[in-house]
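Morning, I've got a small favour to ask if you have a moment. I've been staring at a protein lately and its backbone has me curious. You're getting the sequence in one-letter code plus the fold written as tokens. I've dropped the whole record in just underneath, so have a look:
=====
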Amino acid sequence: MDRVQWIETTLRQAFAPVHLRVDDESARHAGHTGAASGGGHFRVVIVSELFRGVDPVSRHSAVYKALGTAMRSDIHALALRTLTPEEWQRSTTPGE
């Protein structure tokens, strides 16, 4: 299983998202120190009921916790957008 699939599977199990998108942006960071050591750069949009009533910092912390030790090895950089279904509905832009 590649890293994108692993991230998707892990986040689906942890958050039961109504929408999840994981993009591997590692190629854009070729030559970057973190990329040179094998860590990937990823962008995640995750929409879950579990984020209701949870502040943004705690949402991000929960995602980091779900990804566990991969945050110190396989993942060098992680751009997160964590939303409730209502927030997602209000802010959806084409292509996301």
